Amino acid sequence: MTADFLGTTVAAILTLVVYSYLLRDNPLYRLAEHLLVATSVAYTVVVTVYLVLIPRLVLPLVRNPAGRFDLLFPLVLGLLLLAKASPRLGRIGNFSLAYVLGMGLALAAGGALVGTLFPQSVATMLPLVPGAGLTPLAALGNLVIIIGTLAVLYSFTFVVARREPTPAVVEASTRSPAAIWRQVGRWFLMITFGAIFGGTTLTYIALLVGRWDFLINDWLRPLLGL
C-alpha cells in the first residue's frame, strides 16, 4: 500500500465516520469532529507562527530593535491577550480584545459601505428608456431591479404605534399604498431567499456527489482492484 493510497484510505474512513451521524450520534462521529477541530487549530497556529509572528514581528525586532518601535504596540497587545487564559488576569486582556473588536467592526462597517452599499446603489441606477443598444426587454428588467430594490428597502421601515390600534385601523392600514408597497418588498425578499436556498442546496448536492465519486473511484475501485 503506497503512501498516497494510505492517505486516501484515511480520508475515506473519516468520510464514512462522518456520514454515520445520519444514523445517530456516536463516539466515532465525535472523534472525527474532534480531529477536525484539532487539525484546524493546529494548522492555524502553525500558519500564524511561521507566516505572521516570526517574519513580521520577531525577525524585524531582532534585526533592528531600535528602529521598529511600531511593532512594540502589537507585541504588547498580543501579550496582554494571552492573559485571557487566566481567570485572575483575564481583565488585563480586555484592552487587547476591545482593540481587536473595535478594529474588526470598523473594517466591517467600512467594507460594507465601500464594497456593498455604494456599489449596489450605483448598480441600481439603470437606464429605463429603450434605445442606444438597450432593448425593451432589458429596459423591463432594469425596471424590475429598481422596483425590487426600492420595495425591499421600504419593507424594512418599521413604525411603532403609540397605542393599540382598533380593528378598523388595522384593516385600513393593510390596504394602504404603503402596506402594499411593503408587501411587494417582502415578495422580492422571499424570491431572493428561495433562489439563495436553491443555489446553496445545489452546491451541497454537488459536494455530496463529488464525495461519493471520491469514495467509489478513488478508494473502492483501487481497493478491490477494479
What order do the helices and strands come in, and which of them pair?
Layout: H1 3-19, H2 27-63, H3 72-81, H4 94-124, H5 136-155, H6 167-174, H7 177-224
Can you put this structure into words, describing what you see?
The chain has 226 residues and is an all-alpha fold. It is built from 7 helices and no strands. Helix 1 crosses helix 2, helix 1 packs across helix 7 and helix 3 (72-81) packs across helix 4. The longest helix has 48 residues, at 177-224. The protein is extended, with a radius of gyration of 28 Å.
- In whole angstroms, the N-to-C terminal distance is 16 Å
The main β sheet shows up as:
none
Shape: extended
How much helix, percentage-wise, in residues?
over 70%
Query: What is the CA-based Rg, rounded?
Result: 28 Å
Number of helices: 7
Q: Count the E strands.
A: 0
What is the string of helix and strand elements? Answer: HHHHHHH
Structural class: mainly alpha
Overall pLDDT level: 86
Q: What low-confidence regions span 5 or more consecutive residues with pLDDT below 50?
A: none
Amount of beta strand: under 5%
